[in-house]
Amino acid sequence: MPFLAPSPARLPPFSLLLNNQTEPQAKVARHLGVSLRTLQRYKARDYSPRSVYLTLWFESRWGMSALQEKAFNEAVQARGWVASMERECERLKRVIRVLEKEQEEGAAANRGVYRAL
Question: What letters, b where the CB count within 10 A reaches 16 and e where it falls short, cover 17-32?
Answer without folding.
Answer: bbebeeeeeeebbeeb
